[in-house]
Design goal:
The chain has helices spanning 59-70, 78-84, 94-111, 116-121, 123-126, 151-159, 174-185, 204-213, 231-239, 256-263, 292-301, 331-341; strands at 3-20, 25-38, 43-48, 141-145, 164-168, 193-197, 219-223, 244-246, 267-268, 306-307, 321-322, 343-344. With 354 residues, it is an alpha/beta fold. The protein folds into three domains: 3-126, Enolase-like, N-terminal domain (Enolase-like, domain 1, 2-Layer Sandwich); 141-263, Enolase-like C-terminal domain (TIM Barrel), CATH 3.20.20; 267-344, no CATH class. Strands 4-5-6-7-8 form a five-stranded parallel β-sheet, with helices on one face. A three-stranded antiparallel β-sheet has the order 1-2-3. The chain has a two-stranded parallel sheet with strand order 9-10. A hairpin with a 4-residue loop joins strand 1 and strand 2 (25-38). Helix 2 packs antiparallel against helix 3. The longest helix is centred in the N-terminal third of the chain and has 18 residues, at 94-111. The protein starts with a strand and ends in a 10-residue tail after the last strand.
Length: 354
């Protein structure tokens, strides 16, 4: 089926209450709903909603990008249209590109007769097998700014089934926010944890003091604490606390390779046949696909445990599904194409090696 039409519908949605961060107050979300239709009548949708300060393009750039991205795709199949999209790492307008890619993947999923999430997970290949369903993913409730939250808000989120609550900090004075967090901790059920996002609110000393004052609270993670983050500052901050540090919008200003070397605590390699390059024993069994030299260095020199599964531990465990290696233009697309290209080999026997 080929793409027959595309339409873009602007929207402006007021929020029930302002979304406050250290750097902005957002009281509405504006964007465009993209609709793609193929010549069979199927319709698929993507959402383009630039958010100021999030690292993507601004609204005028997104609107222009939608127009320029869509026109050349009319008359192509959804899969051919995906091939035409620029790789996401090279795209100056990732928000618009995400909307187009989502709609195209939705069309492919509909053509396969399943929801998009199931299509991306490869559910169609597991249909009829006695394989266990994938484990649930714990997601957090987005609770908004800390200073707007009360005990009833916390109870409502927990009663809805959330065991992780995320909230914005860095809006009030540190002492005031610590006091509010201490109050919230008194109404949290056992096992419930907090994720905090400071949106680069504090200088180093203030961030350190905040973490020290919160040391006894059930905080899982603090995101973007530093106003001027670099890897050394993040490392020093992490060394001062057991609360995990996270980066989001500042990642584009950091050296990604250096950050991984400093911050990744467990490197996981899953076994399958490595398509290029071999190790000293003549085997090529690590599916870190694109950098043989870097993979060897990581495996031999990584300072924490490395988890393996399959041929590389010397056990001839049959891997039930083989995904043909292919460099994809984005992580979303890589998931979809891997699912589409998987083939069964031999008897279905899942790899149960821990």
């Amino acid at each position: 089926m080929k793409l027959a039409a595309a339409s873009v519908h602007p929207y402006r949605l007021p929020l029930r209450s302002p979304w406050l961060t250290a750097g902005a107050s957002v009281d509405e979300r504006c964007g465009w709903l993209l609709c793609l239709q193929d010549d069979s009548g199927r319709r698929a949708y993507g959402d383009c909603a630039p958010l100021p300060g999030s690292g993507g393009e601004n609204a005028p750039a997104a609107a222009q990008a939608l127009r320029s991205l869509l026109l050349p795709l009319i008359g192509l199949t959804a899969r051919a249209a995906l091939e035409r999209l620029a790789p996401d790492g090279d795209c100056p307008t990732p928000v618009a590109r995400c909307a187009v890619e989502t709609a195209l993947l939705d069309l492919l999923a509909q053509g396969s007769g399943m929801p998009l999430a199931a299509y991306l997970s490869g559910t169609r290949l597991r249909h009829g097998m006695c394989s266990a369903p994938p484990p649930p993913v714990r997601i957090n409730a987005a609770c908004g700014s800390l200073h707007n939250l009360g005990a009833n808000d916390i109870r409502a989120a927990c009663n809805a089934g959330f065991a992780i609550l995320k909230m914005k900090v860095g809006v009030l004075a540190i002492d005031d926010e610590v006091a509010l967090l201490q109050q919230i901790a008194t109404v949290l059920p056992p096992g419930c944890r907090l994720r905090l996002d400071a949106n680069r609110a504090w200088p180093d000393a203030a961030a350190t003091r905040f973490l020290q004052d919160c040391a006894s609270l059930p905080i899982e993670m603090l995101e973007e604490p530093l106003a001027a983050p670099d890897i050394d500052r993040l490392q020093a901050l992490q060394d001062s606390t057991t609360i995990a540090m996270a980066v989001d919008e500042s990642i584009r200003h950091l050296d990604g390779e250096a950050l991984v070397k400093r911050k990744v605590r467990l490197w996981v390699c899953m076994g399958d046949r490595f398509p290029r390059g071999q190790f000293d024993d003549g085997n090529g069994e690590y599916n870190v696909m694109y950098d043989t030299t870097g993979s060897i260095r990581a495996i031999h020199d990584w300072p924490t445990p490395v988890v393996f599964s399959g041929f590389e531990i010397g056990a001839r465990i049959q891997i039930s599904i083989s995904a043909r290696p292919r460099r994809a233009a984005s992580r979303t697309r890589q998931m979809a194409e891997a699912a589409a290209s998987m083939q069964f080999i031999g008897e279905y026997r899942p790899d149960l090696t821990p």
